[in-house]
């Protein structure tokens, strides 16, 4: 049988199957096996590939011969014919060294494929085992999981990470004044369909004065700037005031100085000399109604200036005494827990009358300051008429507080005053009419059993003054009550509750009596950390759905569908609604997104809610700053409490945290408050010390609202403090530690400021009754409630003569002996007026007398104290005096936070700065 010559070509070799790979040298056929053997002995071929020809071919096979000196093709071998052809096997001498080795090699290659497959299976099993070990053990180098740099304390304290803006306001129904993205003070005009934005004051001017506040005159010609502020009490301050004239080429004037023509003062008893025309630190300045006249408070007295350019001021009150008698501004007690404003004077719409309060603190002891309300007719400054406004008959002869006041509508003949008794369980809304200004009760609110009334904002009246809206507690269910809107008709003596549900109404924004719509802010059911915009119709409409409130911002797929992407990361809102003008058929509101994303604001049509335009957007400027930091992840949840209550909890999970790190042990730091009516868990955007600690120190930072917080039941705290709300802190943390294995049970600390400092001391004072917290810090704490302000203390605990046991049980000094040694750090400013330094002294004395070793920061040094000795050592590189610092320690905040961080680094075994730097270097290496 002749064979077919096959040309040698690499393409042919690669393209044929294994059983057909035959290539001839010079076209030589090999007809039998003997020739095949001779060829192999002569070295004429390199590799053999043979096809079994079968018995019909008499054992002849075609053999491809490749000369190893001329060709370097690695032709695959078909091994099966060599092993299966008995004739070929018998003819070749298999003991030839070359042939035997080659055939053995070919035979081993079959086994190598199985070895490779087996090896791959083993490697796969090993990898699977490693992955399983990671999942089960929970060990992963967390440095690979976060990006960005750790936040530094200086970066947090600079305040650049939290956007701050000057307040915005509607000056009229068509003009909205706000701080634009470029830092200028701008006006958005809605009068025409094509809205326009114009600059009122340049950003250069605002930066030049370092403006902290402003007020525009109603005609928008003048802007009154506040700058160089210095805090006095919680709400009040002294400042320099400068008037800016928009129409002048040189709009600046020098800071205001009082120009008094002289007058009699009760404490001086002689003529006072006119002060020099130089900048004064004034207590308060504001516009008089809708005019360009000014009201000035200086040395606790009120002055009137007819115009910004007037050369003289008229003195309206003459009784002011430093630290004793206050006219037009509240005293210390009213600023702490009664009035929510730095002023206590209200001008009529036309500027012809002034309503103001006088506070007298001259009586010593436990007596409350007595308050008087006055109306003065200033239409004729040469002949002033004063009228005393008396409270309703139900309050005469007993102690009471003035909680709010104001003119009814645009009238100058009626004022509305809200009073509350000293026990704060009875509130009375009264109408006081000229000419004798006698007050008559129009509505009364009484607290539920074993509860108190919270002081609310001033009622909102209809233009005719016949009805008003107010916030009041409404019972929902058997035990819970929530703040809702009530509509009170004065003429019809009818009360209607307009909002319903298990959520808290925080503010009434506007009442559009033309469209019969009421705009307000409230939480969402089951989500107390959020705040949304709602609309409800007033009772004057015949719409059967009038009592059905509608949430505008809860579901962005509904009313705000067209702007849903704009508010995609917004669950905490506020809004400003334009005043409704009788000449305009349209109205608008500015919707502010306050978190959890970066703040922004946009204008919407108030009737259709259609998007109109962006007002400001902080995201383009602030996001690049935040993006470079390793920020914590926020997670909100609820924890069950006794009696069906549920605590609201917010976790700041550090940047290295991941869900799969189930057994990673993170230290826990808890910020406590617990003050009745307070709120800690919120979705408002804010970069605070908790954000810094979670980012920088890799701790799980916890905020929580327990019973007594706003939106929670406060009955459990009635006539008892330091009990329920303190135990709730422990209960919540025990639950979190049990359910979340990534929390390290052996490294849990807590801290608080003010009331939170009191709760911290009370928690650690549980001693062996709590096994959760290892250490804590109390900053400016309250210790003994007999020495705290009466407005708050008596509201919750009652009078000491009626509930002395409650005062004793709530005293933090009584638990000082149970605080574990070396677990407590006390910090207090000597000039604290909110929680006077006496509280810190009494708590430190109780600890020292009990022999408890603790840290104490108040003067030049951090002092470690016990009952037998005192040793001082610097906490930081340099000590800082707290002698001149108030409740918020504003002048030494960096020292305060560094001291706190150092204490927790030691107590909770946190990574030091050096260890942090080392981890950063490891992270960079891991990324490479």
From TrEMBL:
Transmembrane spans: 113-140
UniProt feature coiled coil, ranges: none
Q: Ligase among the record's keywords?
A: no
Q: Which GO terms describe its molecular function?
A: dipeptidyl-peptidase activity; serine-type peptidase activity
Q: Which domain of life is it from?
A: Eukaryota
Q: Where is the Peptidase S9 prolyl oligopeptidase catalytic domain?
A: 687-857
Is Nucleotidyltransferase among this UniProt entry's keywords?
no
Q: Which GO terms describe its biological process?
A: proteolysis
Question: Which InterPro entries does the record associate with it?
Answer: AB_hydrolase_fold, Peptidase_S9_cat, Peptidase_S9B_N, Serine_Prot_S9B/DPPIV
**What are the UniProt keywords, alphabetically?**
Membrane, Transmembrane, Transmembrane helix
Q: Where is it found, in Gene Ontology cellular component terms?
A: plasma membrane
Domain (Dipeptidylpeptidase IV N-terminal) ranges = 363-599
**SUPFAM superfamilies linked:** alpha/beta-Hydrolases, DPP6 N-terminal domain-like
PANTHER family given for it? INACTIVE DIPEPTIDYL PEPTIDASE 10-LIKE PROTEIN (PTHR11731:SF187), PROTEASE FAMILY S9B,C DIPEPTIDYL-PEPTIDASE IV-RELATED (PTHR11731)
Question: What is the official name of this protein in its record?
Answer: Inactive dipeptidyl peptidase 10
